[in-house]
Amino acid sequence: MERLVGKNILIIIPKDYYMERELDPVVESMKSEGANVLVASNKLKEAVGMKGGRTTPDVLIVDAIEGITGDS
Prior knowledge:
Blueprint: E1 8-12, E2 16-18, H1 20-32, E3 36-41, E4 47-49, E5 54-55, E6 59-60, H2 61-69
Parallel strand pairs: 1-3, 2-4, 3-6
Antiparallel strand pairs: 4-5
């Protein structure tokens, strides 16, 4: 069952030392339910997790906020 089809979800992480065990399963679960998931941070460079995992944010936090509020 895809309960989140058509939903947009923004997850904000720090640029370093995010917790993989909190991010990865949540992103996978939401995507499997049909959600469009974006990961945001204050830098677009690769973020390093506490256990050495790596992820590259999709969008800057400031750009995501502008998209939500319509401010430019």
